[in-house]
Amino acid sequence: FSKPDMSRLRLAAGNAIVKLAQEPCYHEIITLEQYQLCALAINDECYQVRQIFAQKLHKGLSRLRLPLEYMAICALCAKDPVKERRAHARQCLVKNINVRREYLKQHAAVSEKLLSLLPEYVVPYTIHLLAHDPDYVKVQDIEQLKDIKE
């Protein structure tokens, strides 16, 4: 396969997982490994793959169709080499947090049952994705840790 073909395949795979995850019956059968591989599409070497995947992800999150753990993928955008993409990812993350909080305010009567929508619950998923990021393999590398912090 050529490089453009491989990029299209990675994008199709990531988008397919996101689409499946929007259906509760399929979300349950997506393995942790598939979720982690899907998350890597946000840091793909190809700019168009990163951009299109991020748009698809944000669309599913803002419509509250995707499970909360998919919001953790946005944190991986901090490594994007394009400053505008990092800023856009941050805006999308803030918007999604606000959408979820507003939804919980409007549905206060059943909010106890909707704890899975709380944006604070995304932190463990974010830590998991960062801990399993293939770009960060040297735990003692201070520069890598500073990169994660930013």
Automatic annotation (TrEMBL):
It is found in: Nucleus. GO terms for cellular component: chromatin; nucleus. One of its GO terms (biological process) is DNA repair. Keywords: Nucleus, Repeat. The keyword Nucleus applies. It comes from the Eukaryota. Its main location: nucleus. Pfam families: PDS5. This is PDS5B protein. It comes from Oceanodroma tethys (Wedge-rumped storm-petrel).
